[in-house]
Amino acid sequence: MPPTTLDYLTARPADRLEYTENDETMWAVVTRGNGGYDQLDYCQVKRPQPDSGEVLIRVLAAGMNNTEINTRLGWYSSSVDGSTAGLSDSSDFKGDDGGWNESTPFPLIQGTDCCGEIIAVGDGISAKRIGERVLVRACMRPKGFDNPENIWMASDFDGAFAEYVAVPGSEAFAVKCDWSDAELATIPCAYGTSENMLVEAAVRDTDRVLVTGASGGVGSATVQLAKQRGAEVVAVVSVSKRGLVEELGADLVIDRDQDLRAVLGDGSVSLIVDNVMGDGLADRIKLLQRGGRLVTSGAIAGPMVTVDIRDVYLNDLKIIGCTGWCEPSFPNLVSYIEKNEIKPLLANTYPLADIVAAQTQFMLKQHVGNFVLIPS
User: Fold this and answer.
1) Crossing angle of the two packed helices 66-73 and 355-362, in degrees rounded to 10
2) What would you measure as the largest C-alpha separation in the chain, in angstroms?
3) Burial letters for 4-30: b for 16+ Cβ neighbours within 10 Å, e otherwise?
4) Which of 151, 217, 267, 282 has its CA 20 to 30 A from that of 259?
5) Interstrand relation of 25-31 and 40-46 (parallel, antiparallel or unpaired)
């Protein structure tokens, strides 16, 4: 990865978005700071240029995730201890630790999921790459995959809620398939996060996997990716979304309001993929058989949990936290797409200018899959 990637936060200061009459411009959604929808500014900004080792991508479609909303609302701050619904969209959070790694570098162009076309390259990148349709690996490991340090497009540097974005050439993966741009844009964050968890948890075809929040972006991806590995999948969802999750291949679907221990029994699963957390975790832990694993990359029902630690050490359980993606995760996804081994779940599309309407609808949580924004 080129040295410039290590210097994004210093090499691209806040005034990088300002432009003069001589600059090429683009339309983008700039998040000005923590707060409500008033912080989302659809405006013209300076168009980025590819540095050495980078490619310039024309954004064809940009997926939308909890990540962008939670970052804007400041949910990642250690001072916040409630669910992701706990901060209203008029949040007046003004902390300085609301980012994934460090403080969020506002003003910022968000947008973690990018499907686009390479239109220009910097020094060190072959011009033959111009014209490739690509997905961007949003989680980047600037010191290599043996070092856990990671930076994220759209949380640590400008992302895809724009007409153009510049990223390291090594993070733009060519994809050859007949999927639409919007379908491809549902993949990077949700499926990348899910695939990373399953790789880190070493899922096997002998596993019985419990997936909480199975109708969400990461949850629905996990149902597919665990089944793709031959595992038995038990999915937890609301009644209204049962049929859609069954279509993804879940072997058993349980209403999220049911008592899981009563339905499944203690020691009945070998792996829990849990991005819900919250008050129910103590009971879910008891579902794990001896030597079982729990893997997580989120906490939508709340990050502060109570667990009987005796259940963990007396049963030799493993709890695995996942943020930085391991090396095989994203190449695996590209392979699955090109072999038609997974399918996209596109809930809806909106013009980029209508981001407020899209995020408002997204927060109702009535959908299955992902929303995608299309630059005009």
Assistant:
1) 100
2) 67
3) bbeebeeebeeeebeeeeeeeebbbbb
4) 217
5) antiparallel
The two tokens of residue 42 are 């659809």
The label of the residue with tokens 């432009």 reads 19
User: Two tokens at 111?
Assistant: 């947008």
At 201, list the tokens.
């948890």
290 vs 313: CA distance, rounded Å: 10
Phi, psi of 288 (to 5 degrees): -80, 135
User: Which burial class, exposed, middle or buried, applies to 246 when counting CB atoms under 10 A from its CB (0-12, 13-18, 19+)?
Assistant: middle
State how far the alpha carbon of 246 is from the alpha carbons of 96, 131, 258, 368, in Å.
42, 38, 17, 12
In order, the DSSP letters of 279-319 are GGHHHHHTTEEEEEEEEES--TT-S-----HHHHHTTT-EE
209: nearest Cα among 265, 268, 262, 254: 268
Give the 3-state secondary structure of residue 167: strand
| CA gap 375, 96 in Å, rounded | 30
Assign 3-state DSSP to the chain and report helix, strand, coil percentages, each to 5: 30, 25, 45
Residue type present at position 365: K
Q: Which helix (H) or strand (E) holds 181?
A: helix 181-184
Burial of 128: CB neighbours in 10 Å, binned 0-12, 13-18, 19+: exposed
C-beta of residue 68 within 8 angstroms of C-beta of residue 110:
yes
Q: Is the bond preceding residue 351 a cis peptide, omega within 30 degrees? A: no
Bridge partners, 253 (sequence order): 235
Three-state DSSP at 243 gives: helix
CB atoms inside a 10 Å sphere around CB 200: 18
Cis bond leading into 107, ω under 30°?
Answer: yes
Instruction: Give the pLDDT score at 376.
Output: 77
pLDDT tens digits, residue range 302-328? 889 999 999 999 999 999 999 999 999
Convert the pLDDT of each residue in 190-227 to its tens digit.
999 999 999 999 999 999 999 999 998 999 999 999 99
Lowest mean pLDDT among 34-38, 41-45, 179-183: 34-38
Q: Give the length of the chain.
A: 376
SS (H, E, C) 42-69: EEEEECCCCCCCEEEEEEEEEEECHHHH
0.90 surpassed by pTM? yes
